[in-house]
Amino acid sequence: MINIALPKGRLGEKAYSLLSNIGYGCDDYEENSRKLIFRDEKGGVSYFWVKPSDVAVYVERGAADVGVVGKDIIEDGSPDVYELLDLHMGKCTMCVAAKNDWYDDTSRPLRVATKFVNVAKKYYAGLGRDIEVIKLNGSIELAPILGMSDVIVDIVETGTTLKENNLKVYAQIFPISARLVANKVSYKFKNGELLALADKLSNEVNK
Which of 25, 52, 92, 192 is least buried, going by the fewest C-beta atoms within 10 A? Predict the structure, then answer.
């Protein structure tokens, strides 16, 4: 049995569709169901649906053999898992953004509002820039507008929200997409099965 953790929402549905296309479908799967676990004993696969930020935790701790998780979560949380494959889904970019008229006053620490605290710290440490991190969980664009922060570090997909709030991107930190990750113990003991799954997925996404 291969246990697969998928993120709730659109990305998880797309990932399930991909897996189903390559022979890992689940007979009792129902789209938009409130069920959290689907098992197919005959097919040797089980799925469970979790909050996107928790997928890597389930994989790291062995509740799941593999999972689908965004590169943003991998970079910020540094889970102890193997990253097997870029699925080329959910593409966006981790960016630094600020008000259109912002300039960097290097005489004081830069105030950075973000949900991705570790990403921000690593990025600015690499630049040798002192920062003060302001941890927020939502509506991060408000922080510079209200004068609470100088910049934000956040995911940008289309940039529409930034433009509508008179903000713009000043730096791109890294590209983001969904990745297939594996538990290290599972990778050792179910190596053949997991490599076969990753190989079929690779062929499917690179068609």
Answer: 192
Which residues, 6 or more positions from 124, have their beta carbon under 8 angstroms from its beta carbon?
110, 112, 130, 131
Q: In this predicted structure, what is the pLDDT of residue 37?
A: 86
Instruction: Round to the nearest angstrom and report the end-to-end CA distance of the chain.
Output: 27
Q: What is the pLDDT of residue 36?
A: 82
Spatial distance between the Cα atoms of 145 and 98, rounded to a whole number of angstroms: 9
Tens of pLDDT, residue by residue over 52-93, are 999 999 999 999 999 999 999 999 999 999 999 999 999 999
Residue 151: pLDDT band by 50, 70, 90 thresholds? very high
Within 10 angstroms of residue 54's Cβ, the number of other Cβ atoms is 16
DSSP 133-196: EEE-SS-TTHHHHTTS-SEEEEEESSSHHHHHTTEEEEEEEEEE-EEEEE-HHHHHHSHHHHHH
Q: Residue 207: its pLDDT value, please?
A: 79
3-state secondary structure 121-140: HHHHHHHCCCEEEEECCCCC
Strand order in the sheet with 167-176: 131-135, 110-114, 151-156, 92-99, 167-176
Phi, psi of 3 (to 5 degrees): -100, 125
pLDDT in tens, 26-37: 877 766 667 788
pLDDT above 80 (res 188): yes
Say if residues 66 and 194 touch (Cβ distance below 8 Å): yes
